[in-house]
């Protein structure tokens, strides 16, 4: 990382200017990682600068996608609100893994972070599609899935193990593809992507506790 | 109540969903305070009440943070980036005792044990949701 990238104020300013420009259609394509918005499991807790210090808080939206018009996502918020999310060349998109906009579908849920634009849209810095982070108890283990219970009502949910994607962390240790130490009855934090079609989850990472 | 700068605690933060929501979060409800909302800058604190403490039991991991009930305000700061977010306690959590000894690091410095949970709006203000957890300082 260059010295310039380590200057939070400078990065914030550049980032906002870039997002704004990108949303208006004048951006040169650059990697989102240069803006601090790229996600990777290996980048646990990577420092992320605030957006432009002149902005007291970044914009945030959540809900389900009702329509996709070009690079704009129409989102129905869970509280009856509506959002227009503008994807730009700088938008980091996560759907089980870092991915591209063509993987986003109507009916998906999302959380989006960005900058409010004058036209009422949010120019997104990052969009996390269908992401969930659930505290669960492991109820059953099969070759390709975990049977889980979460929430006060012990809602049953199936967590699918995805080849070449699902990893495990045992008490915060290094990520491994070895899930053999997961046991029935253990507490587990499940980071993954909800599947609207069957209400199951594709597991990105299972963090096992005591 | 304003967000202060007096040091309160340090450790890991994770994120959770609550209130009206899509997917499996739809069953989460309004949390222990009845006001929890994923879109608001809110947090869950492991000592929000005695009954909360009895569930989270951070003392079993050596964490004996003070009681701060519903409506308490905290400033949560990313240990490395310095990004901050002001949050209101709106739920009980995380279950610290279930992950005793877990640590999260950045720039070679680590924070141990889950001591606060943030809503998606709050967590994403200081980090990326896909990281799942962050090392933070907490002020009030």
Overview of the structural elements:
The complex is a heterodimer of chains A (210) and B (140). Chain A is mainly beta and 210 residues long. Chain A folds into two domains: 4-129, OB fold (Dihydrolipoamide Acetyltransferase, E2P); 131-208, Nucleic acid-binding proteins (OB fold (Dihydrolipoamide Acetyltransferase, E2P)). Chain A has one helix at residues 8-23; strands spanning 59-69, 72-76, 82-86, 92-95, 97-99, 109-116, 122-129, 131-141, 145-150, 155-161, 167-170, 187-195, 200-208. Chain A has a five-stranded mixed β-barrel with strand order 1-2-3-7-6. In chain A, strand 1 (59-69) and strand 2 form a beta hairpin. The longest helix of chain A is centred in the first third of the chain and has 16 residues, at 8-23. Mean pLDDT of chain A is 81; it is low at 1-13 and 24-54. Chain B has 140 residues and is mainly beta. Chain B has a single domain, classed as Barwin-like endoglucanases (Beta Barrel). Helices cover 10% and strands 34% of the residues of chain B. Chain B has two helices and eight strands; from the N terminus they run ββαβββββαβ. Chain B has helices at 50-56, 120-126, and strands at residues 7-15, 42-45, 73-78, 84-92, 103-106, 109-112, 114-118, 133-139. Chain B has a six-stranded mixed β-barrel. In chain B, a hairpin with a 5-residue loop joins strand 3 (73-78) and strand 4. The model of chain B has no long low-confidence stretch (mean pLDDT 94). At the A-B interface, strand 1, strand 6, strand 8, strand 12 and strand 13 of A face strand 5, helix 2 and strand 8 of B.
* Beta-strand share of residues of chain B: 25-35%
What's the gyration radius of chain B in Å?
14 Å
Measured between the Cα atoms of the first and last residue of chain A, the distance is 37 Å
Number of strands of chain A: 13
Q: How many structural units, i.e. domains of chain A?
A: 2
* Secondary-structure content class of chain B: mainly beta
Mean pLDDT of chain B: 94
State the oligomer: heterodimer
CATH class of chain B, please? Mainly Beta
For the sheet with most strands of chain A, the description reads: 5 strands, mixed, barrel
By DSSP (H or I, 4+ residues per run), the number of helices of chain B equals 2
Structural class of chain A: mainly beta
Following the backbone from N to C, one meets helices and strands of chain A in this order, namely HEEEEEEEEEEEEE
Q: What is the CATH top level name of the largest domain in chain A?
A: Mainly Beta
What is the succession of H and E elements of chain B?
EEHEEEEEHE
Architecture per CATH nomenclature, i.e. the level-2 architecture of the largest domain in chain A: Beta Barrel
How much helical structure, as a percent, in the residues of chain B?
10-25%
Give the tally of structural domains of chain B.
1
Query: Runs of chain B with pLDDT <50, length 5+?
Result: none
Radius of gyration of chain A, taken over Cα atoms and rounded to an integer in Å: 18 Å
Low-confidence stretches of chain A: 1-13, 24-54
Pfam family, one (chain B): DPBB_1
InterPro entries (chain B): RlpA-like_DPBB, RlpA-like_sf
Organism (chain B): Actinacidiphila rubida
Domain RlpA-like protein double-psi beta-barrel (chain B): 59-137
């Amino acid at each position: 990382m260059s010295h310039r990238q380590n200057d939070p104020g400078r990065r914030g300013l550049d980032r906002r200017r870039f997002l704004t420009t990108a949303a208006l259609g004048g951006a040169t394509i650059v990697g989102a990682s240069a803006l601090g918005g790229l996600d990777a499991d290996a980048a646990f807790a990577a420092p992320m600068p605030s957006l432009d210090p002149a902005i007291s808080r970044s914009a945030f939206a959540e809900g389900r996608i009702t329509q996709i018009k070009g690079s704009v996502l129409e989102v129905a918020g869970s509280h009856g609100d509506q959002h227009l999310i503008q994807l730009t060349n700088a938008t980091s998109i996560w759907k089980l893994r870092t991915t591209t906009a063509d993987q986003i579908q109507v009916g998906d849920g999302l959380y989006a972070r960005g900058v409010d634009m004058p036209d009422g849209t949010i120019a997104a810095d990052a969009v996390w599609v269908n992401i969930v982070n659930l505290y669960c108890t492991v109820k059953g283990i099969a070759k390709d899935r975990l049977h889980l219970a979460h929430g006060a009502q012990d809602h049953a949910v199936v967590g699918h193990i995805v080849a070449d994607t699902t990893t495990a962390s045992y008490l915060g240790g290094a990520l491994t593809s070895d899930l053999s130490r997961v046991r029935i009855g253990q507490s587990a934090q499940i980071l993954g992507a909800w599947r609207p079609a069957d209400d199951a989850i594709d597991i990105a990472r299972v963090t096992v506790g005591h | 109540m304003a967000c202060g700068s007096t040091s309160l605690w340090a450790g890991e933060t994770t994120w959770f969903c609550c209130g009206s929501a899509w997917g499996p979060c739809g069953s989460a409800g309004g949390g222990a305070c009845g006001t929890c909302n994923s879109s608001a800058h809110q947090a869950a604190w492991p000592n929000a009440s005695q009954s909360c403490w009895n569930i989270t039991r951070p003392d079993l991991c050596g964490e004996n943070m003070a009681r701060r009930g519903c409506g308490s305000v905290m400033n949560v700061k990313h240990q490395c980036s310095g990004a901050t977010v002001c949050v209101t306690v709106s739920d009980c959590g995380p279950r610290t005792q279930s992950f005793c000894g877990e640590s999260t690091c950045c720039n070679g410095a680590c924070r141990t044990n889950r001591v606060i949970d943030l809503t998606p709006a709050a967590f994403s203000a200081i980090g990326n949701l896909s990281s799942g957890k962050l090392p933070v300082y907490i002020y009030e």
